[in-house]
Amino acid sequence: xxxxxxxxxxxxxxxxxxxxxxxxxxxxxxxxxxxxxxxxxxxxxxxxxxxxxxxxxxxxxxxxxxxxxxxxxxxxxxxxxxxxxxxxxxxxxxxxxxxxxxxxxxxxxxxxxxxxxxxxxxxxxxxxxxxxxxxxxxxxxxxxxxxxxxxxxxxxxxxxxxxxxxxxxxxxxxxxxxxxxxxxxxxxxxxxxxxxxxxxxxxxxxxxxxxxxxxxxxxxxxxxxxxxxxxxxxxxxxxxxxxxxxxxxxxxxxxxxxxxxxxxxxxxxxxxxxxxxxxxxxxxxxxxxxxxxxxxxxxxxxxxxxxxxxxxxxxxxxxxxxxxxxxxxxxxxxxxxxxxxxxxxxxxxxxxxxxxxxxxxxxxxxxxxxxxxxxxxxxxxxxxxxxxxxxxxxxxxxxxxxxxxxxxxxxxxxxxxxxxxxxxxxxxxxxxxxxxxxxxxxxxxxxxxxxxxxxxxxxxxxxxxxxxxxxxxxxxxxxxxxxxxxxxxxxxxxxxxxxxxxxxxxxxxxxxxxxxxxxxxxxxxxxxxxxxxxxxxxxxxxxxxxxxxxxxxxxxxxxxxxxxxxxxxxxxxxxxxxxxxxxxxxxxxxxxxxxxxxxxxxxxxxxxxxxxx
Length: 613
Known about the structure:
Layout: H1 2-10, H2 14-17, H3 23-43, H4 102-105, E1 149-151, H5 159-163, E2 171-173, E3 176-178, H6 190-198, E4 210-214, H7 220-225, E5 231-236, H8 244-250, E6 255-257, E7 272-278, H9 290-298, E8 299-308, H10 314-317, H11 325-341, E9 345-350, E10 353-357, H12 363-367, H13 417-420, H14 424-427, H15 436-456, E11 468-471, H16 478-481, E12 489-495, H17 503-508, E13 512-516, E14 529-535, H18 537-540, H19 547-557, E15 558-569, H20 570-580, E16 585-590, E17 600-607
Parallel strand pairs: 4-5, 4-7, 5-6, 7-8, 11-12, 11-14, 12-13, 14-15
Antiparallel strand pairs: 1-3, 2-3, 8-10, 9-10, 15-17, 16-17
């Protein structure tokens, strides 16, 4: 029979052999391809249920009939599951911050607090275990209640409640902490303190949207500015003030571990409309004014710097500060001189507050370098380079302006128009490959994508289920912009290996973010985020570092019962799912918003609830 078939084939004419298939044959072939594709997706999908049957249970529309639970329960307490590839780390690592490890930091110089900077473990030192939540961990209070309350079990540290009792930072009340809103320089509360600032600086007209708080404590200043539509990047080192940044994050307030030392802050130039230091203990006048020069780099043209605490109002406070009048007067004089050398204008000194303003362009400042010899303007480094980039003692030049009234780099719209207006960096053509049209298209695209996410995970539509969000590959900030009307905040990360540096655009939209290399740990505590969005992260980092190390870091910074949304090529997501399902996560692949024929898919994952014993 085989021979007959072969003979018959060889007798076919050339015309018959080249005959095109009929429409009927093409249709049959297409149907068969689709069926085999859907069967393949079905085979890679989970068939296991949650350890505690969810009520209510979320139904996902996908290529299969299954369920995935995004609701919170915090009742499942499994500490030993022998079938899992990744064991739990020891309970002593429940607050592990790999790149700010207290023991490792002691190996580095104390000068300028360099030992408090990022010092990440080498590849051979990486831990391949799951960081546990402390025993008794509970999901944080919903926003805005969380601004004032946090569970004691989540951050079991009483030290600040004793050390800062008089300053009203934090109090212990039974099984919870209460944050009265106080600070070292505002024991009567952040609201009263901010009201004082508002008499000197416009805080409600939308002209100020992004702020940075250097040495933030428990971030009450940033927490209370949110009611004025100002979002603050608060940072403080991991030091003797135990868990101050962790408290901020438990409150649902944006914060990072960070310090002003030898490296630039991990933010682009011209990022913040306002900078703040309230007794932050940063030696502004030392090291040739290097720290104030760094604040100048990240301040927008016309931005404000607010200083309270030593040495401001030293004539009233010098006895309480246990310093001499001469010492405090000399420090203030030195700060005034550095600010003047940066061409800042002192707006007002009133009570415990002093406020300076950066010029809107550098036309006059460059002219007066003939008289003021130091600092000179920088000539080499990229002003937006800020990942392990050393600080300099030179002024970061603003973009050229044609006249003294022009805002260098372009004037921003007021919030909220600023969110969707085309950013000046794009209008100027300085972002390669991004035009005003592509920016507007990207904004609309992410509205559609987030709407699809909300259909797939109905918890996203519930206003108080999530609070702290992370976008691991933010690009133009479209994901965050689509959540503008929800009570959430988004940390927009632009990876250091991204083909285009777009973090400046993110800030020009009135959003916040940071640089990050995902081959290293993030400068934050475990259990920071309620939801993580990873768009093409593993395609970007293909062959650069291990997939499982990135996923273990995601697990570290994700809260129990937190959600991850992966978006990537289906082959990549199948590999991700294989690892995720060995990390006490439950996951499933669902279709792209444009339907099942797209190779790009979405992997939804939920971290199950478990704690240290």
